[in-house]
């Protein structure tokens, strides 16, 4: 299967690979997927509590090129967004941006799940109720 | 100058040897006759080409030329062998024994005969990929008409104990068939010494053309017959109708001749290269060779690199043509059933790469492959959350993963 240029670009030059200090109260961590299924994404956000804005985002992904590209793109999009804006990111936007074929849509779904899971973790750490996470 | 990408997927198919093409060329041009045309020189010339090929093939597997039935390839041969025996010997019984790591051409054919009222036993394999002779013995019944166990596995290269298996089959009055697709032309195969009654094989796995294969069907001790699955002009002793693919058959013949003459030299060279590739890649932490190392085709190695995903890895080694046990590209999301049959967990099966070397593989290509794979695995591990957790000593099996 041929990958789109954007997938290849994110795969070859992944943005924001790394780890944030999850002991910090303003860092939210989402870990989604399963090794048995061939993809696991960990996405982290660091939030400026005063402005509710995401100042940093990092990821690590075990998975195919599309999974790596989806999470790399997600971290790029997250930086500078408010938490509420980040919540509005829809997986289909990732599909469109990366031109993912139908068999790879689950990679974008996983990225959306990772974003929501990271935000939920941040909320819980800060005394807010967890998000109701959809199960795909 | 090293030409990229490098082809190391020779279990999928091999390039055509130029000497094979040269042998085929006249039959693609001037010698175009139908080998069944007995009444003019065009037909005779074609038939002569086919007869010579039969002899070249027979020499490679130590059989009689008359015992070769030409087909379109190994899939057709597997179908003809299994379905043909099932129909021909239905008076005697309806039980077939095979194993879980067979190629789909065997497994799906067995599923088909189950629908027709056949009974099939699928023997498991151990972590080396080998069946248990005791379990085979225990599975034999008076109704067992056929034992079909592959010679060498396409994913791992594991070689089954063919002689012991055929002895058990024969001691219970059953026929022994083997899918020799990966083995014929690569390692010595002798149908008499190995006790083979029926064997499927194909040209394009041994530097011949695609679209032509053969089924060896024993004529003596015992005389075996298979019911034709293709009705028509009664070619190939009535077992496979259809105008013979003369250029393809000539190519298969030449490929067999070259294999016979060059097997020892190829094996010596390829096993050294394969071992070097494997040894170097195994210096990466948490790498595992899949299948038997002792009983294995000389040109194959299958390695799992834990904590990286196979498809992602294949994208990382874009200058290498290899295949992966990851089925991320398929709709099922299921990793290789062969690796799972060896007892590999899904994540290790997902993390595997299969390397298949060929007569044309060079040391320079292997050097490049080693560096390229090491670099990609290292890069992807730096990107892998699982690798980070492993480094921190977290037991991944204790984490509650959300299955999706």
UniProtKB/TrEMBL annotation, chain A:
Biological-process GO terms, alphabetical: iron-sulfur cluster assembly
Keyword field: Iron, Iron-sulfur, Metal-binding
Domain (NIF system FeS cluster assembly NifU N-terminal) ranges: 2-126
Organism superkingdom: Bacteria
Pfam families (UniProt xref): NifU_N (PF01592)
InterPro entries attached to this UniProt entry: ISCU, NIF_FeS_clus_asmbl_NifU_N
SUPFAM superfamilies, per database record: SufE/NifU (SSF82649)
CDD domains referenced in this protein's UniProt entry, alphabetically: IscU_like (cd06664)
Gene3D superfamilies per record: 3.90.1010.10
Function: A scaffold on which IscS assembles Fe-S clusters. It is likely that Fe-S cluster coordination is flexible as the role of this complex is to build and then hand off Fe-S clusters.
Stored NCBIfam families: iscU
Family affiliation: Belongs to the NifU family.
Name of the featured protein: Iron-sulfur cluster assembly scaffold protein IscU
